[in-house]
Amino acid sequence: MQAEKKSIYSISILTISLVSLLFILCFSFYLSSSSSPSSAPRSTTLTFLSNFSSAPPPPPSFAYLLSGSDGDAPRLLRLLSALYHPRNRYLLHLDLSASHDQRLRLASSIRSSFPPSSSNVAVVGRPGHSNPRGSSTLSASLHGAAAALRLWPDWDWFVTLDASAYPIVTQDDLLHVFSYLPRDLNFVQHSSHIGWRESRRLKPIIVDPGLHLSARGAVFYATQRRDLPDAYKIFTGPNSVILSREFTEFCIMGVDNLPRTLLMYYANTPAAHKNYFQTVICNSVQFNRSIINHNLHHVQWDNSSKVDPRVLGVDDLTNMTLSGAAFAMRFSADDPVLDLIDQVVLNRGPGQFVPGGWCLGRGSGDPCRVWGDPDILRPGPGARRLERAIVDLLSNESFRNNKCIWE
Ligand SMILES: *[C@@H]1O[C@H](CO)[C@@H](O)[C@H](O)[C@H]1NC(C)=O
Ligand SMILES: *[C@@H]1O[C@H](CO)[C@@H](O)[C@H](O)[C@H]1NC(C)=O
Ligand SMILES: *[C@@H]1O[C@H](CO)[C@@H](O)[C@H](O)[C@H]1NC(C)=O
Ligand SMILES: *[C@@H]1O[C@H](CO)[C@@H](O)[C@H](O)[C@H]1NC(C)=O
Ligand SMILES: CC(=O)N[C@H]1CO[C@H](CO)[C@@H](O)[C@@H]1O
């Protein structure tokens, strides 16, 4: 009797101490998460490193803009399946060079292969032209950002991807790692180094007929050239970016005049989509501290072309995964390396969704036939690689000081 009482007593002590341990863990986590958005990224790094194995914070949500042109519908569908997660939002944009029929067929394949409850995928119904040599591609990205803001009130980051890109981590990996990051970080690769190529891109005055004619036409150049601006500093970089919701709103709402002024300047500039977000964010006092000089893409340059990165193949898989990036580009449509990525990295069967903690199906077939709780993440080795890469980016000595430096 006495012994029994004693053991009950010790069990309850144990329970109480477990409960208080849990409470302390939750409380310390609450403290660190509530202070992280306003604290400097330096301390973010520490929180990020030290709290990685404690109770996971709530996962974020991404709004993807997947853009393609004529004939890209099958690639966009494949990209969508490789990126799909019920927490995320997806906007598919087939520019005006693709027939309306292609857009309708894309929408109907989404309706048939995605569950009817998935209101998180949309196809842009009335797109404009998108000419990467002019400024209409930028117009298409801004259209996508505006639509994502209007359609879905609940995402944290806006991610632009080209049809030639592909993920090299699962969405569970990405959501898991990003759940530890302050929601105000922007991943925008940029440089203020304006070499002769960039100056050749910035001094000409162009007209992009994609902005005012319904038929597709080539960009034409005015005979006069203009000086480089001195009212603001120009920054350039790749057009794939990961923008915080707050910065996306800043660009789209235009309450501050900077995004609008730069938009009007870039309207007559070649390849405006490679400069716009970089220039807005680096010239804005409000946002120039929230930038990370990397877009989490793995690309490989060769010296034959300085305009586009090289097309990746099966031999590049090792370097791709070693890079710790979340996405890679450029790929040819249905290249064997994509099948290899599906098999080795994403664990995705042909025509299936990329599996995650929300997929409950057992046995053969697509495990994502049976939907579970989208908040349950099962990060794999990709999360470790991405985590290491982001910790490197955040802990770099120059992270705070070298941002948007005018070289
Ligand atoms: C942010 O912009 C302001 C004003 O242009 C500039 O003084 C400051 O150095 C910038 N900060 C960073 C980190 O680039
Ligand atoms: C790059 O240039 C070097 C020297 O000009 C040349 O030897 C090499 O083969 C080139 N590499 C590629 C991938 O074109
Ligand atoms: C992989 O990266 C290493 C080191 O940067 C480089 O030497 C090698 O050429 C790369 N492999 C391929 C296939 O590009
Ligand atoms: C840190 O940043 C500097 C300058 O941007 C760069 O040269 C260096 O490679 C970076 N180091 C790491 C570990 O990323
Ligand atoms: C559980 C745990 O490791 N919590 C830590 C999270 O980070 C903060 C600040 O960096 C620490 O004070 C907590 O102890």
TrEMBL record:
Species, as recorded: Acorus gramineus
GO molecular function terms listed in the Swiss-Prot or TrEMBL record: glucuronosyltransferase activity
GO cellular component, one term: membrane
Keywords carried by this UniProt record: Glycoprotein, Glycosyltransferase, Membrane, Transferase, Transmembrane, Transmembrane helix
Coiled coil: none
Lineage, uppermost ranks: Eukaryota, Viridiplantae, Streptophyta, Embryophyta, Tracheophyta
Bilayer-crossing regions: 7-31
Bilayer topology term: Single-pass type II membrane protein
Protein name: Beta-glucuronosyltransferase GlcAT14A
Subcellular location: Membrane
